[in-house]
Amino acid sequence: MSCGLFNLTSEIMKNLLYILFATFFLASCSDSKEEVNVQELNQQFIGAWNSRDSDKIISLLADDVHFLQGEVHFSGKSEVSDKWVRETLGTITDLKTNVVSTGTDSQIAYEAGTFSVDVLPSTPDEPHAYGEGNFILLWKKAEDGNWKLSYAQLEDMPVVARN
Question: 38-161 adopts what CATH topology?
Answer without folding.
Answer: Nuclear Transport Factor 2; Chain: A, (3.10.450)
